[in-house]
């Protein structure tokens, strides 16, 4: 055995060595598990894993080095490693806030909640790496290295398991919204005909198209703003629509509406279910370029049946003095060319331009609205998942009048109605039912019922014809959309 690898001989316990152990324990607990985690917690403000992960690891590394950078350390393995670790994990006074801040700070499925484990990796690497470079280092031996490796594997396994669970959650439960099992940002219960006292519009006479039984009922799914429409269609035409169980009714906001004939999994998942042939009719805006590409790659062909007219609208806080913008001005806002309302005839205030995620229907329409103009990347606090979220944030964000958002008109006037917002006139035209019906508003779009061309269900085509007929259009108008004719 060389002089370099020879272990430090243990010395009998005395008052002096006991004081060294006590001071070392205090230093590890204070630096590694109080001051270090509090310092690393500041990385949460960045809200970007690419920044926070290296920051958390680096902070842990620095504080790990500081824990063993003293002139004198306990001469025994227990005093240098085991006791400080035991006291740190038992006391844990500031690591708990760090853990909860990262795990429950509203980041949903974000990997940011794994920051505590990244910090622990850095702390362990700094502590062991620095200790192994000391002249008085403790000899680990095979058993010591095995124990240390096992301790490092615990957070690594947790991170891997959490990542797998996140993927399953995102695939099955939506995007972590508050309602309908994570799929919806708004309350859909009043529009579900299977819920008692629902406000679902009804026909004044029996439907001329009725499907009896439950075997061949076309499965319906779609966008959040389209749910009241196709729920009303199902109520009118499905004579034997299965009711919800008492348990499902009691847990409506926690349950998934992904089984049966009347389902809801929002735009992203509903379109994927259409391509997987789990859904017969998808209701929403025109598919995005990415969705059209996915359809082509699968060798499928879509049939887009317009069932209602809708306006793509822009809205601001009602305290904003601006009442209208041109198409060019809106493009300048979302491209980053204009950042102050003063240039648009408003007050001297920052423009807070909210966007939607790429998978959403409104973001697809917004991309089309921008044309060849490139959209500026949004700040994290101005990227809103649900349509209800962007409406709420625009009305309340920091109590400032500088916010602007976009959505479909029905979401503002019906499903996601919020106080303290107003729709803007675009190119001098307000989005009213009349201007939408006659095509005067410049950004009119369609609400589509989308199917696969080779769908074998015999009820799909007559159902689509009924939607475009008088009874279907009557329900469209009663709900708050604009009829086709």
The string of secondary-structure elements, in order, is HHHHHHEHHHEHEEHEHHEHEEHEHH
Distance between the termini: 93 Å
Uncertain spans, ≥5 residues at pLDDT below 50? Answer: 1-13, 101-109, 169-175, 380-399
Instruction: Describe the sheet with the most strands.
Output: 7 strands, mixed
Number of domains: 3
Q: What coarse outline follows from CA principal-axis ratios?
A: elongated
- In round numbers, the mean pLDDT is 80
Portion of residues within helices: 40-55%
Proportion of residues in extended strands: 5-15%
* DSSP helical segment count: 17
Number of strands: 9
Question: What would you call the structural class?
Answer: alpha/beta
Integer-rounded radius of gyration: 30 Å
Describe this structure in words.
The protein has 485 residues and is α/β, with parallel strands linked by helices. It has 3 domains: 15-173, no CATH class; 180-308 and 455-479, Periplasmic binding protein-like II (D-Maltodextrin-Binding Protein, domain 2, 3-Layer(aba) Sandwich), CATH 3.40.190; 310-445, 3-Layer(aba) Sandwich (D-Maltodextrin-Binding Protein, domain 2), CATH 3.40.190. The chain is built from 17 helices and 9 strands. Strands 1, 2, 3, 5, 6, 7 and 9 form a 7-stranded mixed sheet that branches. Strands 4-8 form a two-stranded parallel sheet. The N and C termini lie far apart (93 Å).
Topology of this structure?
Layout: H1 15-41, H2 49-67, H3 77-91, H4 95-103, H5 115-132, H6 141-173, E1 220-222, H7 227-237, H8 246-250, H9 266-275, E2 281-284, H10 289-297, E3 302-317, E4 324-325, H11 327-335, E5 352-353, H12 361-370, H13 387-396, E6 403-408, H14 409-415, E7 421-423, E8 425-426, H15 433-437, E9 444-452, H16 460-468, H17 470-479
Parallel strand pairs: 1-2, 4-8, 5-6
Antiparallel strand pairs: 2-9, 3-6, 3-7, 3-9
Helix pairs in contact: 1-2, 1-3, 1-4, 2-5, 5-6, 7-17
């Amino acid at each position: 055995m060389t002089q370099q690898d020879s272990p430090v001989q243990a010395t009998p316990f005395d008052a002096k060595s006991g004081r060294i152990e006590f001071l070392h324990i205090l230093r590890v607990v204070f630096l590694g598990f109080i001051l270090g985690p509090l310092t690393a917690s500041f990385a949460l403000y960045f809200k970007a894993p690419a920044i926070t992960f290296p920051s958390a690891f680096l902070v842990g590394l620095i504080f790990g080095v500081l824990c063993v950078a003293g002139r004198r350390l306990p001469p025994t393995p227990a005093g240098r490693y085991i006791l400080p670790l035991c006291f740190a994990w038992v006391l844990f006074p500031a690591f708990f806030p760090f853990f909860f801040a990262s795990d429950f700070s509203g980041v949903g499925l974000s990997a940011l909640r794994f920051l505590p484990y990244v910090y622990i990796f850095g702390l362990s690497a700094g502590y062991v790496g620095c200790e192994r470079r000391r002249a008085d280092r403790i000899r680990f031996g095979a058993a010591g290295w095995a124990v240390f490796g096992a301790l490092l594997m615990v957070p690594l396994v947790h991170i891997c398991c959490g990542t797998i669970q996140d993927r399953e959650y995102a695939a099955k439960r939506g995007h972590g919204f508050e309602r309908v099992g994570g799929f919806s940002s708004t309350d859909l219960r009043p529009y579900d005909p299977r819920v008692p006292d629902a406000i679902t519009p009804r026909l004044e006479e029996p439907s001329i198209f009725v499907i009896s039984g439950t075997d061949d009922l076309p499965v319906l799914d779609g966008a959040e703003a389209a749910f009241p429409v196709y729920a009303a269609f199902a109520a009118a035409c499905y004579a034997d629509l299965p009711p919800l169980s008492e348990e499902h009714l009691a847990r409506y906001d926690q349950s998934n509406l992904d089984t049966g004939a009347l389902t809801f999994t929002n735009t992203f998942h509903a379109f994927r279910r259409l391509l997987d042939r789990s859904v017969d009719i998808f209701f929403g805006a025109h598919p995005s370029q990415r969705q059209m590409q996915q359809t082509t790659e699968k060798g499928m062909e879509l049939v887009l049946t317009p069932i209602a007219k809708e306006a793509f609208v822009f809205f601001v806080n009602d305290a904003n003095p601006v009442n209208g913008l041109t198409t060019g001005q809106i493009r300048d806002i979302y491209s980053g060319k204009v950042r102050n309302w003063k240039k648009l005839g408003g007050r001297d205030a920052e423009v807070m331009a909210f966007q939607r995620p790429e998978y959403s229907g409104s973001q697809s329409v917004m991309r089309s609205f921008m044309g060849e103009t490139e959209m500026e990347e949004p700040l994290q606090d101005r990227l809103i998942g649900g349509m209800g979220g962007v409406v709420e944030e625009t009305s309340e964000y920091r109590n400032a009048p500088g916010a602007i958002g976009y959505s479909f008109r029905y979401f503002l006037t019906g499903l996601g109605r919020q106080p303290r917002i107003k729709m803007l006139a675009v190119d001098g035209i307000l989005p009213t039912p009349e201007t939408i019906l006659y095509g005067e508003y410049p950004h009119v779009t369609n609400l589509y019922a989308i199917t696969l061309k080779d769908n074998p269900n015999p009820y799909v085509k007559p159902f689509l014809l009924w939607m475009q007929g008088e009874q279907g259009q009557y329900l469209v108008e009663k709900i708050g959309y604009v009829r086709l004719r």
